From TrEMBL:
Keywords: Oxidoreductase. This is Beta-ketoacyl-ACP reductase. Belongs to the short-chain dehydrogenases/reductases (SDR) family. It comes from the Bacteria. Transmembrane segments: none annotated.
C-alpha cells in the first residue's frame, strides 16, 4: 500500500533523489520547495522551514492529497560558510534556524498523525561535517551535529509508538555546488575519501529508502554514514 511521504527541500539534489527513489517504490511523495516550480511528476508544496505556519500548511496540503504522512525526511538545509572571526551572528543563527530548528518544526508537525497511526518513520539528513568538523563551517557543522542529539532523543521518546527516528550522514555528494569547484579543489576532496570519489545523490537516496522500509523496523536512533569512509571512527 502506498504510504504518504513528505521530503523537505525535495526539489533538487539529495532531496529530489530521495523523493524519486521513494516514488519509484510506490509511495505517494510530496516535496517542499522554497522557490521555483515543483519537480515533474511529484506533488510540490511551497514551504520555508523557518516558518512554523509554512510547515503546518505544507503538511496540511500533503495530507489532503495523500493522507496522513507516515514517512518524513527532513532534508532542507543551507550553508553560509565563513571563518568564525568574521562570522556575523545572523550568519550563524540563519543556518541553525533552517537546518536544526527547521527539522524540529517538521518533526513536531509530523509526530501528531504518526502517534495516532502508531507507526512512522522520521529520517533526518545530517552530514559527515557534523561529526568531523570543517574549517569555515562552524555554523553548518553545529546544525548537523545538533540533528544527532535531536534525533536520538526523539528515537527514545517515540519508540514505544512504533515510530523510528534515524539520522543519515552523507559525505561529499556530486551536486551543483561541488560542480562549481575547480578540478584541483575536487581532487583535494577526493584524496581525503578512502573510496576516492564523491557520492552520487542516488546512493544517499537508496540508503534512505532502506531506512524508511519495513526491513529497517528494528533500527532507530542510528547515525548511518554514507561518506565513502571519510568520517570513519566518528
Amino acid at each position: 500500500m502506498a504510504r504518504s511521504v513528505l521530503v523537505t527541500g525535495g526539489n533538487r539534489g539529495i532531496g529530489l533523489a530521495i523523493a524519486r527513489e521513494l516514488a519509484a517504490t510506490g509511495d505517494a511523495v510530496a516535496v517542499t520547495h522554497r522557490s521555483g516550480e515543483p519537480p515533474e511528476g511529484l506533488f510540490g508544496v511551497r514551504c520555508d522551514v523557518t516558518s512554523q505556519a509554512d510547515v503546518d500548511a505544507a503538511f496540511d496540503k500533503a495530507e489532503a492529497e495523500h493522507g496522513p504522512v507516515e514517512v518524513v525526511i527532513a532534508n532542507a538545509g543551507i550553508t553560509k560558510d565563513t571563518l568564525l572571526a568574521m562570522m556575523k551572528e545572523e550568519t550563524f543563527t540563519d543556518v541553525i534556524d533552517t537546518n536544526l530548528t527547521g527539522a524540529y518544526r517538521v518533526a513536531k508537525r509530523a509526530v501528531r498523525p504518526m502517534l495516532r497511526l502508531k507507526r512512522g518513520r522520521i529520517i533526518l539528513i545530517s552530514s559527515v561535517v557534523g561529526l568531523l568538523g570543517s574549517a569555515g563551517q562552524a555554523n553548518y557543522a553545529a546544525s548537523k551535529a545538533g540533528l544527532v542529539g535531536f534525533g536520538r532523543s526523539l528515537a527514545r521518546e517515540l519508540a514505544s509508538r512504533n515510530i523510528t527516528v534515524n539520522i543519515i550522514a552523507p559525505g561529499f555528494v556530486e551536486s551543483d555546488m561541488t560542480a562549481a569547484l575547480t578540478e584541483e579543489q575536487q581532487q583535494l576532496i577526493r584524496k581525503q575519501i578512502p573510496l576516492g570519489r564523491q557520492a552520487h545523490a542516488a546512493e544517499i537516496a537508496r540508503v534512505v529508502r532502506f531506512v524508511a522500509s519495513d526491513d529497517a523496523s528494528y533500527i532507530t536512533g542510528a547515525v548511518i554514514p554514507v561518506d565513502g569512509g571519510l568520517g570513519m571512527g566518528h
